Amino acid sequence: MNRKYLDFEVIKESWNKYSLQDGTKLKSRAMLKSVWTEEVDGTTKHNVEIDQQQVCLCDPSVQGEPSTMSYPKEQLEGGIDVKNCRYTTLQYEPSEYLLDDGTKILLHVSLLNIARTRFFDHVGNRIYLTDATGQMNVERPTK
Fold it and tell me: pTM here?
């Protein structure tokens, strides 16, 4: 397998914003880390590596004592106190990139579920777990 990596420019990496039932605001976005192409059955296929970032603006009513603990995923999943937090989407925009071959990529990442744990991070914000799904749209340049 021969990977051909492509360079890219960021057109837009906006924060998607969500308001939770407990007053907390979550911000999330997908960031493109790398792009490469492969030939599959005579067709060029684009592959991506992404990183999803999340910021929690925790409502004071659900803040607690700061913790220096680093919780493994299994422990966080075992410490869920609200399994399905209701939320409203305040802002949603896909991330957009322009590849050096003229291809445009749009990354859509949508939250499916938000769960609130009983654990707190290093500044006392509640730790939330999110399930998300992603979709990539590839717009090849016209010849």
Answer: 0.85
